[in-house]
Amino acid sequence: MGLLHRAVIATLPLVPGPVMRRLSARYIAGETLDQAMDTTRAFAAQGYGGVLDVLGEDVADEAEARAALTDYVRCTKAIATAGVDSYVSVKPTHFGLRISEDLCFDLYAELATRCEALGQKLRVEMEDHTTTEATLRVFRKLRERFQNVGVVIQSRLFRTADDIAALPEASDVRLVKGIYLEPESIAHTDADAIREAFLKDVERLFQGGHSIALATHDAPMAERALRIAEEQGVGRERYEFEVLMGVQETLWTTWRDRGCRVRIYVPFGPGWRAYSQRRLRKNPQILGHVMRNVFG
Ligand SMILES: Cc1cc2nc3c(=O)[nH]c(=O)nc-3n(C[C@H](O)[C@H](O)[C@H](O)COP(=O)(O)OP(=O)(O)OC[C@H]3O[C@@H](n4cnc5c(N)ncnc54)[C@H](O)[C@@H]3O)c2cc1C
Q1: What are the tens digits of pLDDT across the range 19-47?
Q2: If you take atom 15 of ligand 1, which residue's CA is the nearest one?
Q3: Which fold, 31-268?
Q4: CA–CA separation, 63 and 141 (whole Å)
Q5: Where are the beta strands (DSSP E) in the chain?
Q6: Rounded to an integer, what is the distance from CA 187 to the centroid of its chain?
């Protein structure tokens, strides 16, 4: 981490709330579900789908994990009421994965049941490598009962080719480079190597009969992914783009205008400040992106 990044991160707790809120407004929809739904509806009016994320991770106890489930159930009802094309996406440690794998499974299963009744899907997100094995176990077990549950696969990890080979039939996969900086003993750390791994994973997933949410803002890499789809004769119903709110908007328009489905990830929640600071500390590259966006 560079000196400037370290200095900025160290002073973040001192930045007044309203200033922090203004800086993060581009990336975070607000504190409440109503604000998140206003944002989702505005994107829907421009032809974009949505993904709702209640900010949170690493809950301290079962009560907090159950409270997260309650928040997510409210999200699914709000999506149904608004009649928009959106779904919920949940971090395993927000549902207590580090406390109990059984608890985490039960909460996802409860949410999957609710989503199924509303005709919605949900996604199990992927966190750092200490959770990968358990997360995939939870996902595979969910898929024994539910068809409407997808997962996330991180191309930077060396294990990913094997994980793709072990996916349940016709899985719905969000493919990402991986936001967590992992040790070089288990993951690619070079940007070009991660890009090549991502494209290999696109090939593997399409060949395996899976669907892909290409979650990236790397335009040249995305073009190559689209070429792979074309070469393999994969129809648009088997892939879409997923992007982060506030990041590279011109790309969304380009893809949408070319007839690709584009979904925007809309994070919200009262814990946005602590969450943002934790994420910036874990991956200072994000700070670089944010500073470039704010200061040009
Ligand atoms: C919808 C969605 C869901 C995701 N879910 C997960 C997940 O469950 N687990 C996981 O490990 N990772 C997740 N990620 C993050 C992903 O792993 C990457 O870290 C992130 O997408 C950046 O990689 P990139 O492919 O966009 O390429 P990069 O080369 O990192 O970025 C390309 C360009 O996009 C811009 N950019 C990228 N990220 C940001 C940012 N945060 N803020 C401002 N500008 C930015 C920059 O201009 C950058 O130059 C998700 C990403 C998306 C889009």
Answers
A1: 777 777 888 999 999 999 999 999 999 99
A2: 179
A3: TIM Barrel (3.20.20)
A4: 23
A5: 49-54, 86-90, 122-124, 149-154, 172-176, 211-215, 239-244, 262-268
A6: 19
How remote is the CA of residue 141 from the centroid of ligand 1, in Å?
28
pLDDT(109) > 60:
yes
CA–centroid distance, residue 2 to ligand 1 (Å): 20
pLDDT given at position 285: 66
| Strand pairing category for 262-268 and 49-54 | parallel
Phi/psi class of residue 277: alpha, beta or left (left: φ > 0; alpha: ψ in -120 to 50)? alpha
Q: Whose CA is nearest to atom 45 of ligand 1?
A: 289
Confidence of residue 247 (pLDDT cuts 50, 70, 90): very high
Its pTM surpasses 0.85: yes
Residue 287 has pLDDT above 90, yes or no: no
Measured in Å, residue 214 CA sits from the centre of ligand 1 at: 11
> According to CATH, where is 3.20.20.220 located in the chain?
31-268
Q: Is the CB of 216 under 6 A from ligand 1?
A: yes
The finding on whether 160 has its CB within 6 A of some atom of ligand 1 is no
